[in-house]
Amino acid sequence: MTDPQPLRVVVINGSPNEQSKTRGLVTATLSGLSQIGRKIDTRRIDVYRLGRGFSEANNREDVTPEIEDELRTAEEAELLIAATPIYRGSYTGLFKHFFDLIEQYSLAEKPVLLLATGGGEKHALALDHALRPLFASFQAHTLPIGVFASSGDFDGTTLLNPRVYSRITVALDDTDKLLSHR
Ligand SMILES: Cc1cc2nc3c(=O)[nH]c(=O)nc-3n(C[C@H](O)[C@H](O)[C@H](O)COP(=O)(O)O)c2cc1C
After folding, report:
1. 85 CB less than 6 Å from ligand 1?
2. 75 with 107: CB under 8 angstroms?
3. Where does residue 63 fall: left (phi above 0), alpha (psi -120 to 50 degrees), or beta otherwise?
4. What is d(CA 68, CA 82) in angstroms, rounded to the nearest whole number?
5. For 26-52, what is each residue's pLDDT tens digit?
6. Closest ligand 1 atom to 151 CA
7. Confidence band of 4 (pLDDT split at 50, 70, 90)
8. Atom number in ligand 1 closest to CA 157
9. How far does residue 16's CA lie from ligand 1's centre (Å)?
10. Is 88's C-beta closer than 6 angstroms to any atom of ligand 1?
11. Dist. CA 17–CA 46, nearest whole Å
12. How many whole angstroms from 119 Cα to the centroid of ligand 1?
C-alpha cells in the first residue's frame, strides 16, 4: 500500500518583524503538529517578506506571479494556521491585506487554527473578536480553541510557558479529530 499524501499545512505569519514572537509560537505549534503522527508538508508564509508586489497590490489582478503563488498555496492548504501579533486590539494590517487578496470562496470549510501574540493578556480575546469573524467571512472552519501567548511567555522569540504548550496540545488534538472526520 502506498503512503498517504502528506497533509498540506500552510502558515501565515502576519508579523512585520523578522525576529518574531508570533513566529516562535508558530514554531512551537508546528513542533506539536509533527508529533501527532501525520505526514505533513509545511509551508510558511511570512508576510513581511512579500515586499512591494504584495503591499502595493490593491486587488488580485495586480499581484506579481510570486505573490500569486503564495496566495494560491494558502488557498490550497488542507490546514491553514493563521498567526498574527495583536496590534491595536486586532490583527496587523499586513495580515489583513494578505486575506483581502484571497479569493472569497477558497477557504470555505477549510480548517483554520488561530494563533496570536500580544504584549500582555488583555487582548487575548482578539482571537475571538477579530480573527474569528474574519474567517467567518470566508465560511472557513475555525478550530474552537485558538492559542494566545503574551510577551512574558517568551525568552526572546522562544516560547517557554508550559501552560501555552498545554493549550497548543489541546488545540492540536481538536485539529487532529477534525481532520480524521474528513
Ligand atoms: C503598533 C503596535 C501595536 C500593538 N498593539 C497591541 C495591542 O493592542 N495589544 C497587545 O496585547 N499588544 C500590542 N502590541 C504588542 C505586540 O502585539 C507584541 O509585541 C507581539 O508579540 C509582537 O509580535 P512579533 O514579535 O511576532 O512581531 C502592539 C505592538 C505594536 C508595535
Report:
1. yes
2. yes
3. beta
4. 18
5. 999 999 999 998 999 999 999 999 999
6. 21
7. confident
8. 25
9. 10
10. yes
11. 9
12. 5
Distance 90 CA to ligand 1 centre (A): 9
Q: For each of the domains in the chain, give its residue range(s) and CATH number, in order of start.
A: 7-180 (3.40.50.360)
Residue nearest to atom 11 of ligand 1 (CA): 118
Pocket lining: 123 vs ligand 1, CB cutoff 6 Å: yes
pTM of the model: 0.97
pLDDT band at 76 (very low <50, low <70, confident <90, very high): very high
* pLDDT tens per residue, range 47-59: 999 999 999 999 9
Instruction: Grade residue 2 by pLDDT with cuts at 50, 70 and 90.
Output: low
Closest CA to 167 of 152, 153, 182, 156: 153
Separation of 39 CA from ligand 1 center, angstroms? 33
